[in-house]
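can u pls check wat happens w/ adenosine-5'-diphosphate
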Amino acid sequence: MTEPVRPDALRPDPALIRGRRQWPLPRQADPSAPLLEVENLAVRFKMPGGSVKAVDGVSFRLDDGEALGIAGESGCGKTTTALSLVQLLPANGRIRSGSVKLFGIDLAQKSERQLNRYRWREISLVFQGAMNALNPVQRVGHQVAEPIEVRLGQSREASRRRAAELLDLVGIPAARASAYPHELSGGMRQRAMIAMALACDPAIVIGDEPTTALDVMVQAQILQLLEQLRRDLGLSLMLITHDLSVIAETCDRVMIMYAGRVAEEGPVRRVFTAPRHPYTRRLLSAFPNIHADRRTLEVIPGQLPDLRNPPPGCRFAPRCAEAMAVCSTEVPAEVRFDDGVRVACHLFPSGAAATAETAAPLTVPAGAAVEGAR
Ligand SMILES: Nc1ncnc2c1ncn2[C@@H]1O[C@H](COP(=O)(O)OP(=O)(O)O)[C@@H](O)[C@H]1O
Ligand SMILES: [Mg+2]
């Protein structure tokens, strides 16, 4: 893969970020390898009516200290992509092909037992609705301390101290450490989940709709918290959300998924101001004002294809106003532009000069500008 252009040079130095790790890199790590490099990932779910091709040829990269937003309608494969990184998939799901390289180590080849070295310790997850993820009969302080003791082998006392620090870091007062989950507000529970996700000092935190169940004020506070943690701890984030304004406010790069594939990926500012893929343009025009309007994406006519039997060419073709004959027969190749955006769409044939200039004249939906995007 060629090195993408990065308009945002404000991120901390990767060496600095890795220098802040509390735990050494895994033994097989290649210190010069990118943080995370996913290539051609395909995930299937076995179902009575045939296998669901939930993720099909997804590639992306996450660098140290970077925040990558993943967006797309419900059912596009966002959660499946995230869960497959450390193979926390439901029992009927498995990685069919591709690689998931963390510090150059391919996690897709690891056994269940080996993966335990990476789950929570290198890649941790924050889900939507902390009530289901927290243990209702254990105090939150204990739930944060436990992984430190069990996974990192710290003493009970050290684990407890670290848990108190973490709770403080995410804005839970020390006195609340002895509370049970039901005694906390939705926002506080989500903070506790984030503290748990941070417990083992992971390199990557994945938030899967981490703020969706919360009201707008609390959402903003949780996003601010993630921002702050990213800055202070040098965390690398993957933020899955159907809310494009959240991505505009918090992420460096955005990956738009459609029906298990990447439609478009690139720097947030580029993708949101000059969207190229017709699907991205539809998504953005569903958000007339990315800051004020938090409508969801249901306004795009048509439905996702049946992923047991997806259309042979571009999966978006049946819903695409710009579809051509080739779109229903051939899978579009990913084309990389000189501004760091890549797009899989027959409107941009591979081999043509892929400069941002040639792409820019395409319709930019009125009002879809994202001034605040970084
Ligand atoms: N355990 C499962 N068994 C069968 N199909 C599944 C399972 N989990 C998810 N899927 C299917 O995989 C596709 C992607 O789902 P998901 O990754 O949850 O999408 P998203 O997170 O973008 O909403 C959907 O078609 C969904 O129905
Ligand atoms: Mg999901």
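DSSP finds twelve helices and twelve strands in the chain.
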